[in-house]
Specification:
172 residues; mainly alpha; 72% helix
Length: 172
């Protein structure tokens, strides 16, 4: 049986991965929308810390700025505007979707665990290139190899913004 070398990266990774997994479960399991959103914020921060641990700084910064900064503020505003509290418990018949969701979750967990754990038996370490994750490398790749998909995505975003402005203006 191969031995796993304890490295500082592994010491940082394991608690962060545990917090990320528990906060992801909290997003789904908590009934209060505000607490669920706060678990999502914690999950976003731990994911960005995992990206920094993997030395992908630009992805970690993007995770904090875009998801934690912008999208979560939007989620919290919607929760506050809709005044979402704890859901009302109804004494109606049992819903089959809960059992089907649990069964699907157990099957998905088994598939993912079967994919992850066999590689631990024979460890093949793959090292990333030296400049992996740096903003300069990402920018160079984005604006040389992927310039057309980048421009198409920016045009689609611009069309979406103009369309949403026109729809909002029309209702006034």
């Amino acid at each position: 049986m191969p031995s796993i070398t304890i490295t500082p990266d592994l010491i940082v990774f394991v608690p962060l991965a545990l917090v990320a997994a528990l906060s992801a479960i909290g997003v789904v399991a908590l009934k209060n929308a505000v607490r669920s959103a706060l678990c999502l914020v914690l999950n976003f921060f731990t994911l960005s810390a995992l990206y920094f641990n993997l030395r992908a700084e630009i992805i970690g910064i993007t995770q904090v700025v875009v998801y934690t900064g912008a999208i979560m503020v939007l989620f919290l505003f919607v929760i506050m505007l809709l005044n979402l509290g704890a859901p009302q418990l109804l004494a109606e018949k049992k819903d089959l979707k809960i059992g089907a969701g649990l069964a699907g979750g157990v099957i998905l967990f088994g598939v993912i665990a079967g994919t992850i754990f066999p590689p631990l038996v024979s460890v093949n370490v793959i090292h990333a290139p030296t400049k992996y994750g740096e903003p300069a490398t990402l920018g160079h790749t984005l604006f040389t190899q992927f310039v057309w998909p980048f421009e198409v995505a920016s045009i689609l975003l611009l069309v979406g913004i103009v369309g949403s402005i026109l729809l909002a203006k029309r209702k006034i």
